[in-house]
Amino acid sequence: ASDGGDALRALVRAANTLLQQHRYRAALAVLKGFRNGAVYGAKIRAPHALVMTFLFKSGSLREKLKSIAQATYAHSRNLAYFVFTYKGLMALQSRLQGKKIPFHSFFAACIGGWLVFGENNPINSQIIMYLLSRILFGLSRLAVEKGYIPQPKQDPFPLVAALIWGTVLWLFEYHRQTLQPSLQSSMTYLYDDSNVWHDVYDFLIYNKRTDSK
Questions:
Q1: Do both 49 and 32 map to the same domain?
Q2: N or C: which end of the chain has fewer CB within 10 A?
Q3: One Pfam family from the UniProt entry (predicted)?
Q4: Same domain, 146 and 160
Q5: What is the C-alpha to C-alpha distance for residues 189 and 183, in angstroms, rounded to an integer?
Q6: Are 106 and 59 in a shared domain?
Q7: Looking at the domain assignment, is residue 3 inside a domain?
């Protein structure tokens, strides 16, 4: 047991020594990026998948748990692969050109996005839509900072909120098929299911009356 403990401590010391080597820093940063992508993806997706699955999906407990595990794994894997690809290409471009320039980031992320998130599936679609909304806000702020558009005299957020909600409810009421399935489910629960009841049970306690009622 003592020999095993000594070997483990020696291995840890060797690993720590390797991690302090500056010449391997770029490669090690890529590996840690892969690790952080996997962990963060799981932390983000697991609670979301848990809530959405138990709220809106039917099926047995085993099927629901399997769905949660699959969604969590897919998000964790994709984010890990993307970070690995992005940081690897960033390091390669910087090494080839001898310096880091803004285009490197855009190019590396484009390649990573194409390779990792290019498949049109529910998880990737949700991630892309999440990023798109942040990009639109970010580009708007950048345009103001750079002077491309004037600084608003009043906070434009109330108008943006009004237009966003107006548009999404118009789409839901008249062009529902254009919205993401999970958003359709949420809005159906809020706006359609609240129009139907039979007694106090499915008015206050349950959303829908079961067949036994």
A1: yes
A2: N
A3: Tim17
A4: no
A5: 10
A6: yes
A7: no
Is residue 108 within 8 Å of 90, Cβ to Cβ?
yes
Q: Are residues 95 and 185 in the same domain?
A: no
**Does residue 1 form part of some domain?**
no
What is the rounded end-to-end Cα distance, in angstroms, of the chain?
Answer: 65
Alpha-carbon distance of 105 to 110, in angstroms, equals: 8
Regarding whether 89 and 139 lie in a shared domain, the answer is no
Number of domains composing the chain: 3
Q: What b/e sequence results for 166-192 when a residue is b if at least 16 CB atoms lie within 10 Å of its CB, and e otherwise? A: eeeeebbeeeeeeeeeeebebbeeeee
